[in-house]
Specification:
By secondary structure, the protein is α+β, with helices and mostly antiparallel strands. It contains four helices and three strands; from the N terminus they run αββααβα. It has a three-stranded mixed β-sheet, with helices on one face. The longest helix has 15 residues.
Length: 99
Amino acid sequence: MLGSVIRGIIAPVLRECPPECGVVTITDVVVSEDFSYATVSVSALQSPESALKFLEGRVGELQKKLGALRRRHIPRLRFRLDRTAERGDRIDTLLKSLE
């Protein structure tokens, strides 16, 4: 539940990502059991590294927004690239090379 709230807080900021990132999406939010960290997985169509750098640069602002949750423990945000699509493409390429 907290993951979906965090997603809702971060999602509007994704619209401000630089144009070279293309479409940026949040693919997953995992909150640690002790609520100390929230790991946000993101995917970008064109330049995932630029999107990650942009979001990491906005961590302070996003942490302040999480402070509005008025919870005893506010998780610290961590951003990770979701490489699922890239792995899927690699597997497809490997399977096609076997044919």
